[in-house]
Structures are given as C-alpha cells and as structure tokens.
Design brief:
447 residues, alpha/beta, Rossmann fold, 3 domains, three-stranded antiparallel β-sheet, 18 helices, 13 strands, elongated
C-alpha cells in the first residue's frame, strides 16, 4: 500500500503547500524540460535527481506565525531537515515516538487516528480518478467522521477527551470544518500503525480507561500521626474501591450509586477528586451552573463510567431531573419536535452533600425520590483531636510546613470553632511561618 510514489506526493505537498497546483507544475516543467497535462503527472514523472535540484534551488513560501510551514520532512525514502533534501530513511525515531504514543491510546483514540490517516491515504489514492484538493493534509471533518463510522460503526464527535492526546501531541490542528495533519507526521504514523498492527491482534493492548491506579485514595490521610486508624476513612476507601471494581466488572448492570453525606472537613471532595483520576470518570461541581442541556451534552459526549458530583444540592431542579432518569434506568435524552436523542449509559453516580441539605435536595425534585436513587453513606465529623492531627499532617506532608507552625495553625482554628482543613491550607499559604499574621488571619476570618 505504501510506496515511494506515495511519499513523493507528501514531500512535494509538504514543501510547496503555499503554491497553487499550476505553479508547482510549472516549477517541475522548468527542471525536467517536459510539459505535463496536470500536477499529478508532473510529480509522478520526477526523478530523484530532479527532485534534489528543485529542493536546492526553489524555496517554499512561508507565512509568519503559521505553526506548520513545511520546514521538515522525515520519511522512509526522503529526508528534508530544512536545509537539504537527502535520499535516506529518517522515520525510525519518529516512528518509535508514535508507537509509544499509540500504546498510550485507548481504542477510541486509536480508531480516530486511524480514520484520519486512512482519509489521507484514500485522498492520494483517489487523485487519478477523482477531483480532490491537492492539499491532502487538510481533511474535511465529514470525511473523517465517515471513515470512523466505517471502522467502528459509531458516530464521531469532534470535541471531548477522546481528542485530547491527538491535539496534545501536535498530530492534528482543529479548524472549523477541517483538520490539518502535518505531512511529515503522516509517514511515521502510517508506519507506526502498520508495525503496531503486525503484532498478533490478541496481543495488542490499549491503555484501558478502566485501570484502577494502585495508589487510589493514598493521598487521603486515614491514620493519625501516632498510627491510629481513622475508622470511617479506612472503611469508605474500602467501600469505594469495591464499588468501582465491581461496576467495571458487571458494566453497570447492577445500580451502585452512592451519596456521601458529611459536614465540612470530612474529606468528601478528596474522595471524588481521587476517583476523577480514572479516565472513564467525569467530575462536576454542583455550582458549575451546567443546566440540564449542558449536563446532557457532557454525558452524551464523554459517556463516562463514573459521574462524580460534588455538592449535588447546588444543582437546579431541571438538572437534577436528568439524574432521576439516569439513576433509575441509565437513560438520558433530549426530545424536541425535530429530533429525539436517547442514550443508555452504564454509569455509576457518586455524589456528595451536607446533612442539612438533604431536605432541600428532595424538595428540588418535588418529592420524586432523588435520594432513593442512592445508597446513602454518612461520614461522622472528626473529633477535635483527629482534626488537629489531620491539619498538621496535610500542612507538613503536602505543603512542607514546619510541624510547630502546622500545629499552631490547627489549634488556633479549632479554638475558634473553625473545623476546616481548607482554611488551614489558605492561612498557611498567606502567612507561612509568621505567627503574627497567622493570629491576625484567625482573628478576622469568619467561622
């Protein structure tokens, strides 16, 4: 499938992509002394010697500020380093880089990249029979979506976290109706994919979004500095890890939604932020003002396995109504006269709230049983001694505070009735080791 002729098209396109097709044909005719009917015929006829002469004498047009401007090309047959064209293979290092990237892709990300490369290959193959744009690295999004549908049978959206790595590694630039993929990458990606897929299919392992980090919840302190176990934290770690593992095993066939209830400073948010490390998790805060349509769009787009909602009581009633259906049946959707979009998600909802907000939460859904969708787990408040110890550990271990200063801040806050680890962190951030400023802050801060 891959040939020297194929690479020659990419090379010319890379170098002269600021020229029109007739201009390129004219340049080739000048160096070969022949006339051609079209640009394709002109490129196909080029010998390596003529190609080198052209690269030595004709310079590409550049536009200031353009990210990609044909400055290099690393291929299997041709290498251009910005100064000289050489007849040598230079893709090995780039190919190794892309093989490493491919191993980090999940299956959806891999198929998106494969669809992009297939469109480029198909465009160049079709040049003899169809009228297509000369610049094959400008890809219509519609063509990529069609190719992705052929590969997977699924629709393709053009935003969301499945695109993060593809943009992050500079493989593609996203334009309004098009993608731009740098021609010098096409060869390396194509070869990397070919090598990657030559492995026995059963041995190809994508990085799974379902992998649970071994250190999940390790940042949440569950022992005092004396080594005494903080029982409620240890138990909740065990419960949540079991729920996550079993949800991934049974793909959400059995509902496991959990509502963590507790006052401030019992590590509710910390648990959600730890679970948010999973690639299949979506974290939102109740005060983000997403609205019903915003939440549905996010869920439709990312199709998470875990929906994490911090301070669920702050969601408005229409947004909570989405969770009523999602929590009971797994279905979400939008119904209008023009269309009906309905999706089934195998998602586990894990949310947090305060004990005093339980009634408010139920009233917002007009008694439709939002709380019944959840297994409710209540975290008891820490004792003053436990909270002082926790504040000390957080300030010392995470923020590098001296033990004396950490203990001073913790005790002063508890004396004033402020049971907030966040307040301890902020006070230390402002005052550091200055006890006078610490005292001023604690005197003026509101409970």
């Amino acid at each position: 499938m891959y040939s020297k002729q194929f690479e020659k098209f990419l090379l010319i396109e890379s170098y002269f992509h600021r020229y029109s097709e007739p201009s390129i044909k004219t340049i080739i005719e000048k160096y070969t002394g022949k006339k051609y009917d079209n640009t394709d015929e002109a490129i196909a006829s080029l010998s390596d010697e003529d190609l080198i002469r052209i690269f030595n004498n004709e310079k590409p047009r550049r536009i200031s500020g353009v990210k990609y401007d044909g400055d290099a090309f690393y291929g299997k047959y041709y290498t251009y380093d910005g100064n000289e064209l050489r007849l040598e293979n230079s893709i090995e290092n780039t190919k190794k880089k892309f093989i490493k990237i491919l191993k980090s892709f999940d299956e959806k990300e891999y198929n998106i990249l494969k669809a992009i490369v297939n469109v480029v290959v198909n465009n160049i193959k079709a040049r003899d029979t169809e009228k297509i744009p000369f610049i094959s690295h400008w890809l219509k999004k519609q063509d990529v979506a069609i190719e992705y549908m052929k590969l997977t049978g699924l629709n393709l959206g053009f935003t969301g976290k499945q695109w993060v790595k593809i943009y992050q590694y500079g493989i593609c630039e996203n334009r309004k109706k098009e993608f731009i993929i740098s021609p010098e990458y096409i060869v390396a990606i194509y070869e990397a994919m070919k090598e990657f897929e030559e492995i026995n299919v059963s041995e190809i392992t994508f990085e799974k979004s379902e992998e649970i980090p071994e250190d999940l919840f390790d940042t949440i302190i569950d022992r005092t500095s004396e080594g005494k176990e903080i029982t409620q934290i240890v138990k909740l770690k065990r419960i949540l890890r079991s729920a996550i593992e079993n949800h991934l095993k049974d793909n959400g066939e059995i509902p496991k939604h959990i509502l963590i209830i507790g006052d401030v400073a019992v590590s509710k948010t910390m648990f959600l932020l730890e679970i948010a490390r999973l690639k299949s998790a979506l974290y939102i805060s109740g005060d983000m003002r997403l609205g019903k349509a915003g939440l549905i769009e996010m869920l439709m787009e990312s199709k998470p396995k875990f929906l994490l909602i911090d301070e669920i009581q702050h969601l408005d009633s229409k947004t909570l109504a989405v969770l009523l259906s999602l929590g009971e049946t797994g279905y979400i959707g939008e119904f209008t006269r023009e269309q009906q979009d309905l999706a089934k998600l195998n998602v586990m909802i894990i949310a947090t709230t305060h004990p005093d907000d339980m009634k408010k939460l139920e009233m917002k859904t007009r008694g439709q049983g939002i709380l019944d969708r959840f297994l409710k787990i209540e975290l008891p408040q820490y004792s003053d001694e436990e909270l002082i110890d926790l504040m000390k550990q957080v300030l010392v271990k995470r923020y590098g505070a001296k033990e004396e200063i950490a203990e001073y801040i913790a005790k002063k806050l508890i004396e004033k009735g402020i049971k907030s680890i966040r307040s301890a962190i902020r006070i230390y951030g402002i005052a550091k080791d200055n006890k006078e400023v610490i005292d001023d802050l604690i005197e003026l801060v509101r409970c």
